[in-house]
């Protein structure tokens, strides 16, 4: 069964980003549970800033799963990416992600590599940057497997990275890795910018997809942009996908209303 999730961010420095809930973890989880979400996607400053036992207690109390954990704070707070020309920074980036892998795995969740993939920087070829990225994904994917979970890699739009922008390019990258424990995160917002045909791209690549970000064309909750969801949901359901469809969207017009709009859309397209 396809499961619903909603984002909760606990990193003040990224408060302008596309996260439904902010700051108060328990209140956010209580609201997510009351609305009928199956899980939460969590963004923390670092793995050590969250007590695993406390989070586990809340998940049980509110009957929620941990869908995934984000690693973006590694870039936002520390400037770390997996494709930095400086090998010391690349190593620190892997160490940060390793910590997030262990944190998520303790609760059965994968870690997401999005912004921490970085860019091909001036003076460094795209080929070299992709080689560094592939080596890191292979290493980190193996670590995730050893901890009983998998790793998520997210193709981003051209304004956020000059490396991998489409699901097909992401699938080709995954073929070069030394393990099969890395899956793609299909983000409908990024796909709206880069893909010519969203349902067709998903149909071609669903076997590599392990997580889906549910946001409209303008990054608002589904239904507040121009994305046509019905054919997308049909492809996802026909594929046999049983992971999370998670709302990484702006809290517009308010966190509560954004969450309500999201779960209503999820139920309409995946549960009706």
TrEMBL record:
Residues 30-264 form the Xylose isomerase-like TIM barrel domain. Keywords: Isomerase. It comes from Algoriphagus namhaensis. Signal peptide: none annotated. InterPro entries: Sugar_Epim/Isomerase (IPR050417), Xyl_isomerase-like_sf (IPR036237), Xyl_isomerase-like_TIM-brl (IPR013022). This is TIM barrel protein. The keyword Hydrolase does not apply.
């Amino acid at each position: 069964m396809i499961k619903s999730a909603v984002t909760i961010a606990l990193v003040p420095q990224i408060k302008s980003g596309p996260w439904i809930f902010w700051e108060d973890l328990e209140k956010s989880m209580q609201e997510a549970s009351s609305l009928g979400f199956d899980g939460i996607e969590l963004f923390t400053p670092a793995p050590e800033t969250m007590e695993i036992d406390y989070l586990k207690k809340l998940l049980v109390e509110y009957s929620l799963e941990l869908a995934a954990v984000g690693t973006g704070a590694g870039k936002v707070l520390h400037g770390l990416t997996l494709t930095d020309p400086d090998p010391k920074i690349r190593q620190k980036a892997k160490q940060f992600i390793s910590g997030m892998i262990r944190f998520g795995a303790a609760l059965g969740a994968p870690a997401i590599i999005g912004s921490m993939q970085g860019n091909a920087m001036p003076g460094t070829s795209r080929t070299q940057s992709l080689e560094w990225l592939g080596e890191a994904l292979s290493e980190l994917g193996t670590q995730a497997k050893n901890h009983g979970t998998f790793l998520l890699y997210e193709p981003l739009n051209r304004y956020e990275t000059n490396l991998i922008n489409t699901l097909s390019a992401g699938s080709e990258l995954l073929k070069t890795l030394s393990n099969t424990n890395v899956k793609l995160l299909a983000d409908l917002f990024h796909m709206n910018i880069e893909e010519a045909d969203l349902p067709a791209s998903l149909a071609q690549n669903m076997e590599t997809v392990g997580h889906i970000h549910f946001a409209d064309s303008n990054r608002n909750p589904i239904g507040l942009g121009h994305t046509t969801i019905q054919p997308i949901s049909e492809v996802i359901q026909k594929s046999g996908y049983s992971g999370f469809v998670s709302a990484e969207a702006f809290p517009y017009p308010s966190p509560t209303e954004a969450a309500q709009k999201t779960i209503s859309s999820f139920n309409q397209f995946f549960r009706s």
